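Input chain follows. Return structure tokens only.
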Amino acid sequence: MLFPRTALALALALAAVPAAGQSQPKAAGEPRTVVELFTSQGCASCPPADALLGELAKEPQVLALTLAVDYWDYVGWKDTLALHGHSLRQKAYADQRPDRKVFTPQMVVDGTLVAKGSDRAAVQRALLAARSSGGLAVPLDVKRDGDTLEVALPETDLPGASSGHAGAELWACPIARSQTVAIGRGENGGRNVTYSNVVRGWVRVAPWQGRAAHFRVALKDLHRDGADSVALLLQEGTPTAPGRILGAAVLSLD
């Protein structure tokens, strides 16, 4: 039985409350949870998950991202938003887990917790578990300076030091806040599906080892494929061995 929307809203509210001993992030609207949905226009069971991610995307404490994969393209419709790198990222996540399962729709919360993307109850449990584990530990101070994006990170003991990750990496992801696609063929042929916070690329900003640091990114590198915002992700590990997401922020490019 799926939990009603009010239960999911309650889970989001609880996830926004800092765990004992956890400091408040600097900005009230700074995301405290990151949800990645691996989805495909060719997957018949994905539209309910796409709609659920749309609900999550409206919550200021949640950075909800759509990562369209390309391994469903063989069914007769090439996903117009897919990036092959998303398929590789999903597999890299799976390689870090004992189950090694790759499927759509699949949500990954804070880089470590997995849920079936259309299962509200499972998503709720993952959000609550993320909160109980401390949530995002590193605040990102992000601002625009003319044609440049500036990101400041504080000095922090890397939480991943005990989990085998030698450090973390800061990524800037151009995103399109809303894109509606008329799907012409395949399992969803004839449907119009709206996707929220669609990731249109990945820009590696810099590695990070826990020391106070300041980084700059040229905005011209982030304007691509209809992107109107940018998501910043600070994540343990590497693209081939991703770990826990330590911090996140989102900024409009308008």
